[in-house]
UniProtKB/TrEMBL annotation:
It is found in: Cell membrane. It holds the Pfam family BIM1-like_dom. Residues 1-16 form the signal peptide. It comes from Talaromyces rugulosus (Penicillium rugulosum). Residues 184-208 have a biased composition (Low complexity). It is a lipid-anchor; GPI-anchor. PANTHER family: COPPER ACQUISITION FACTOR BIM1-LIKE DOMAIN-CONTAINING PROTEIN (PTHR34992:SF1), HYPHAL ANASTAMOSIS-7 PROTEIN (PTHR34992). Keywords: Cell membrane, Glycoprotein, GPI-anchor, Lipoprotein, Membrane, Signal. It comes from the Eukaryota. Its main location: membrane. Residues 180-208 are annotated as: Disordered. CDD domains: LPMO_auxiliary-like. Coiled coil: none annotated. This is Copper acquisition factor BIM1-like domain-containing protein. The lineage of its organism: Eukaryota, Fungi, Dikarya, Ascomycota, Pezizomycotina.
Length: 230
């Protein structure tokens, strides 16, 4: 009994926050996951995962270890982007459930990226979730777009039973998960220097949100369709 009493405060809050499984993460250190921008791994890997250039999509397979999660997918072009993940690939999603969660075909068209990709183009994917005590949790994967790869072959790409995700709506969709809570609301105290302090339900049309966005409408329709069938 005494042992249990002593040990319990030392137990980790969660076994793991999330893992980025494909493309392969730079590394994984549970304790450093709250460290922006790449969970404690600041140096790009020399071993990049090749992504099929002509497929124009990026599969991303992660595993949730929190039962409710806000998750964002960002991309930086270049060989060593530092913390400049300035391409947002998806609206921020609100996910429920534990285990594997794969988006098989995040669109990478030139409209999304603002530029055309070319053979040998290096890039880094950043996956962000909301942190346990505010802030975010981060994992990065270094990739290279290759014309000699014709099909992306993730080691696994499926959704665990009970895992589902829908894009947040309104301003929550453009709020990166490190500034969001699991429900999509702004973290208290975050962004107060630059935001106008609007409530999560306020509208922001025409606000000129400086994010490049993927084919959100298509994704949203697909996701909502899936939910409607439940
Ligand atoms: C390089 O990455 C590939 C794919 O992630 C992996 O299978 C392989 O083991 C890695 N090789 C080294 C030397 O790290
Ligand atoms: C891409 O990154 C690799 C190291 O991972 C580097 O050797 C190569 O020169 C880079 N390619 C370009 C086009 O910068
Ligand atoms: C992203 O950052 C790169 C490197 O600074 C820059 O060349 C590019 O124009 C930026 N893209 C956007 C959409 O801000
Ligand atoms: C997993 O679920 C998301 C939405 O909840 C969906 O967009 C995606 O296509 C699913 N992945 C697979 C492999 O079916
Ligand atoms: C959250 O992550 C985004 C994407 O990398 C970054 O631009 C932003 O500065 C981060 N916000 C904070 C408060 O660290």
């Amino acid at each position: 009994m005494r042992t249990a009493f002593i040990l319990s405060p030392l137990l980790p809050i969660a076994a793991a926050h999330f893992t980025l499984d494909w493309p392969a993460a730079r590394g994984f250190d549970e304790d450093k996951m709250p460290t922006f921008p790449c969970g404690g791994f600041n140096t790009p890997s020399s071993n990049r995962t090749s992504i099929a250039l002509d497929a124009n999509v990026l599969p991303v397979d992660i595993t949730f270890h929190h039962s409710q999660t806000a998750v964002s997918y960002l991309l930086a072009l270049g060989s060593n982007p530092g913390d400049n993940f300035n391409i947002t690939l998806e609206p921020t999603l609100g996910a429920h459930g534990l285990g594997e969660f794969c988006l098989p075909s995040i669109p990478l068209d030139s409209k999304t990226l603002g530029v055309s990709l070319h053979d040998g183009q290096n890039a880094t994917l950043q996956v962000v979730t909301d942190g346990d005590n505010g802030g975010g949790l981060f994992a990065c994967a270094d990739i290279v777009f290759s014309s000699s790869v014709t099909t992306n072959t993730p080691t696994s790409c499926k959704n665990n039973t009970g895992v589902e995700a829908t894009p947040f709506s309104g301003s929550a969709a453009t709020r990166i998960a490190n500034e969001s809570d699991a429900n999509g609301a702004a973290q208290s105290g975050s962004g107060t220097a630059t935001s106008s302090g609007t409530s999560p339900t306020s509208t922001s049309q025409g606000a000129g949100v400086p994010l490049q966005t993927a084919s959100w409408g298509i994704l949203g329709a697909a996701v909502l369709g899936g939910v409607a069938m439940l």
